[in-house]
Amino acid sequence: MILTAVVVFAGGTAWTVLYSFTNSKLLPRFSFVGLDQYYRLWAAPRWGVAVENLAIYGVLSLIFSLAIGFLLAALLDQKIRFEDTFRTIFLYPFALSFIVTGLVWQWLLNPDFGVQAVVRGLGWESFTFNPLYDASIVIYGILIAALWQGTGLVMCLMLAGLRGIDEDIWKAARVDGIPMWKTYLFIVIPMMRPVFITTIVIIASGIIKVYDLVVAQTSGGPGIASEVPAKYVYDYMFFAQNLGQGFAASTMMLLSVIIVVVPWAYLEFGRARRG
Questions:
Q1: Which residues span the domain enclosing 229?
Q2: Does 206 fall in a domain?
Q3: For residue 131, what are the contacts with CB-CB under 8 A and spacing of at least 6?
Q4: Other CB atoms closer than 10 Å to residue 236's CB: what's the count?
Q5: Residues of 178-191 as b/e, b for ≥16 C-beta within 10 angstroms?
Q6: Is 204 among the domain residues?
Q7: How far apart, in Å, are the Cα atoms of 134 and each of 57, 119, 213, 224, 265?
Q8: How far apart are CA 230 and CA 275, in angstroms?
Q9: Which residues, at least 6 apart from 102, have a Cβ–Cβ distance to it below 8 Å?
């Protein structure tokens, strides 16, 4: 296992970073060009669109996933009837592949036979809802599918955290007359800090590598309006036959992962060591 980790993961990563400074085309070749690939990368309009889409998708996905997941978990934590059934229903989409989710939501958001067609069939002829065909809002159509699939996992993580709260804390809050929303906001959520940090890392890693949903729903269209970094890397490495550019883009994605993981590791392990 150590050999696999070192050779496949660490070795492959180092090899990719090294060849991102070369002029590799169809096949890797060590023709050193310095930072030229990175200059070309950040000068490419397509990469700028991909980064902008990832930023919009990432921020909104993180906020809504945490908010909706925690809200669902808080509702299920009230010991409601048929809790197991509701938990299964909410978690079921996560069992599907992103390709299946993307295709399903491509049909649902299709203006000819999806939500728009159904509402217009009910009499609202002026109703318009076709985010996947509007370049200005297409990333939000992808976000809808991502939230539908991923929120169930966040809910389960949050529910596990809530079930770990001592029942005496709830009783003390009720005795002191503290409103429930204040109990959640000032007592429960701070106690669930490790759960929130772990959830954020899981969500962030999925955001950075988002690819399947985009390919299944829009293939990066209309035009390049829904382009994301992972698709940029794939297209340049396997279609444009420009390995150097693909390596540079994947190295930037690696840097994004490091920016997410290193602070988390510092907060978790550094704080534990100081304690």
A1: 34-274
A2: yes
A3: 109, 137, 138, 140, 141, 144
A4: 23
A5: eeeeebeeebbeee
A6: yes
A7: 16, 19, 17, 12, 40
A8: 39
A9: 145, 212, 213, 214, 215, 216, 217
Per-residue pLDDT in tens (0 to 9) along the chain, 275 residues: 888 888 888 888 999 999 999 999 988 888 899 999 999 999 999 999 999 999 999 999 999 999 999 999 999 988 888 888 998 899 899 989 989 999 999 999 999 889 999 999 998 989 999 999 999 999 999 999 999 999 999 999 999 999 988 888 888 988 888 888 899 999 999 999 889 988 988 898 889 889 999 999 999 989 999 999 999 999 999 998 899 999 999 999 999 888 877 777 777 666 656 55
Cis peptide before 263 (omega within 30 of 0): no
Residue 25 maps to a domain? no
Site of tokens 């809802």? 129
How many domains are contained in the chain?
A: 1
Domain harbouring 78, CATH code: 1.10.3720.10
Phi, psi of 24 (to 5 degrees): -65, 135
- CB proximity list for 207: less than 8 A, separation 6 or greater: 54, 57, 58, 61, 62
